[in-house]
# Entry
Amino acid sequence: MTVQATYVNLGSVVVSTNGTTSDIGFGSIPQTYTDLRLVVQFRTDYSSSSVAALYFNSDSSTTNRSDTYIMYNGSSLTSGRETTVNRIQVASGPTTPYSATATDMFGVAVIDILNYSNTTTNKTVLWRYSGDTNGTGSTVVGVGTVQSTTAINFVHIATYAVGNWVAGTTATLYGIAAA
Amino acid sequence: MSVSYYPLFTQTVGAGGASSITFNNIPQGYQDLRIEFSLRSNAATGAADGNLIIINNSSYPNSIYSWTQTYATGSGVGGNNYVTGSYIGVVTAATATTNTFTSGSVDIPAYTSGVYKSAFVDSTSENGSGSPYTGHFISNSFRTTSPITSLSILCGNGSFVQYSTVTLYVRAAQYQTALPVAPTSPIITDQAGFASVSFTPSSSDNATAYAVTDNNLVTTYGASSPIIAPATLGSATTYTVKAVNALGSASATTTPSLTSTNSFVALATYVISSTTSSVFFTNIPQNYKQLQIRAFLRMASGGYGPSIYCYYNGDNGNNYSNEIFAGNGSSITTTGYANTSAYVYGAGGSATGLANTMTAVIFDIYDYANTAKYKTTSAIGGWDYNGSGYVWLNNTAWYSLAPITNITLSQDGSFAQFSHIALYGMA
# Structure
């Protein structure tokens, strides 16, 4: 078996100032890896429930994305989906850390984008999210599809429509290369 | 003194018992192999049957194996044969006289040759009680042209008990008359959980093999440069290269220390270019803490909800259990399977689903090389067809203490073109 270095940090972003950043993006992604993994720790400054949304390829208007998820919010367990939308909704609802929830608490999402550079199939995304806000919180596991055979060269995660990421929000993109 | 026959290594079973005993990275510079064993099983019987030998971490049963034997029970003699299996005879077990172990040997001539291999087994299980026990003369055939690089002795019923031992010997084709000459210019390269140690053999060095020993006294053999040796992450490690023959060894200068920081290693990948029923990962290195499989799959035929199967070391018996927690966009299901033959990772995407859309699955296989634990695997997977979809979490146990050396992955129907399955080691 070939042995080679595999798991490479492609870039990290740390939000250092409040009120300025609603969107964290990674562009010009090398097409030499097999999968991408995006690890995000986030909190918004919005005064109500918020959404963390994943976008691809500077193409926020195309509604060729969809997802299916399981979410537990501390009291109920549900499975839901979004169809024909322009993003993959990684986390949402009142249990996502926002300005009214306990200070300094952040949610964490680990997002895997498989075979992102291939040009023959749609792209499949798996993710896990957990956000605990001391008395409330949620865990999510989901799968999403981007109906496009175009290679992914730009990934960004944004608050949906309102609010900004607070200082201390971090995002790191890794490339994972197969043998 | 001339020496042409000497022990490479002895493995002795500890207090916890062991279901198998394995020798990996067997040096290729000798003529023959010989195994001498002293074995006893904890099975609740007088004699445990079904004990066998596996080469090169192959799956089992397997059409490369067959055997024929003559045996004596003390009251009679007989003979039989079998295909798709190997055999080393019965071993004493729990109700046999205390402290009696079966003794035997296995001779494998020309183990590096490009022809099929034969192995002759001679064993006896006399237990001193006068009750009839069995002696065996067994001829095994291993129909592979590949050199033998690893050997495993597997207990067919129960596990080998403490103090069971297996020693691997090598025989050179002719007597060595001179000590080996040390190689030169060792160079070390970090290869993510491994160190690649390259060196220059000396001219006419009389070596039959080379070895790399690190400062933790872990030795890895090889036939030539480079030798890939384990590296301890975050810990300064040095390596000494040796030329080895039957008379002894000669060491090169020790390398500078290496502190490896990489921890995620790509081991092997299947890119499916045409319909394929299953994939096999074999000879999995044993020095990682965890394995991860990242799979991008689609079924080649059939309808909704094909299952994905993943099993270890060729074991498709009822030795698994699993729990599945899944959602389909509107409802939640939880399902448990006990004593299942091959564990089921929920539903995979179907051949008739949204065109070009693939199921994604990530398996994490924990402590896969441990010989004192059953193996635990967790997985996340799913597919989404813009209006239908399925996402799941799955936990699985494999009730075996054997280290995982090979993995089979399949699904109902077959893997379609553009499926992509990659195996990684995590140090």
